[in-house]
Structures are given as C-alpha cells and as structure tokens.
C-alpha cells in the first residue's frame, strides 16, 4: 500500500472542505489529488534553486501566492509532517512567511549561499550519524543466531 493512499482521515480535521471546480464540495479523489499536489509542492520548497526560480518569476510578489504559502503551514502539524521526506522544506516554508526572505530569494548569490550551507549541514549530519552508529555498534554485545539469541560478549 502506498503511504499516500490514505492521507490523514482524507483530510478530516484539516482546513474546511474546498469548493471544487464544479461549485460543489471536493470528492475523495479530488481531496487525495490535492493532498498529493500540495505534498509535492511543499517538498519542492526544500530546494533553494526552486525558491530562486519562483522569486525570479515574481511569485513572491503575488498576494494570492503568499496567502497560499500561509495556508500550507498546516504541513507542520504532526498528522501531516509524517508524510514529508525532506523536512528542510518546513524551514524554508517558515522563512517564506517573511517578506525580507522572499526579496532575497531572487538573488542567485543568496541562493548559492543557502544551497552551500544546506549541503554542509547534510554532510555534518551524515558524518555525525555514522560516528554515532559506529559507537553504538562497538558498545552493543553481539548476538549469535546459532545460540538461539543468547548474548555472547565480544572476545578480542
């Protein structure tokens, strides 16, 4: 089963039901599609180059688009955040709430700096995680499956 097959209660507890293109409330299929589209868009915000693309095309000057970014803050709620693969997108979604950041995102230099910092953060996180896993592996007694899970101490 795809993890997107059943979004949170098919949007129960979320913003009020939207009025579909036909003037009626959205069907379950329309809600599922909107959920998937919004999930994909929010995750794209983790890419500083995409933010630059949006800024250069004037999206961050459009009041309707800014309101849409505000609306998307519901992705920070626990029942929705679990669907995100790139949690950095929430950080950028928060930053996009500020006009100053939206203005700076148009600069390629600023975008390059953010991109570089993001890569450095990932490298630091990866190295730190590897060290923690190695330390944990060295401290964990090894289990021999031939002894029915009986823990044996390491013999040097």
TrEMBL record:
Keywords: Activator, Nucleus, Transcription, Transcription regulation
InterPro entries the record matches: Med31_sf (IPR038089), Mediator_Med31 (IPR008831)
Cellular localisation: Nucleus
Superkingdom, taxonomy of origin: Eukaryota
Chain intervals for the UniProt region annotation (Disordered): 1-23
Transmembrane segments: none
Presence of keyword Transcription: yes
Quaternary assembly: Component of the Mediator complex.
Similarity comment: family membership: Belongs to the Mediator complex subunit 31 family.
Stated role: Component of the Mediator complex, a coactivator involved in the regulated transcription of nearly all RNA polymerase II-dependent genes. Mediator functions as a bridge to convey information from gene-specific regulatory proteins to the basal RNA polymerase II transcription machinery. Mediator is recruited to promoters by direct interactions with regulatory proteins and serves as a scaffold for the assembly of a functional preinitiation complex with RNA polymerase II and the general transcription factors.
Record protein name field: Mediator of RNA polymerase II transcription subunit 31
Organism this protein belongs to: Polistes dominula (European paper wasp)
Gene: LOC107070617
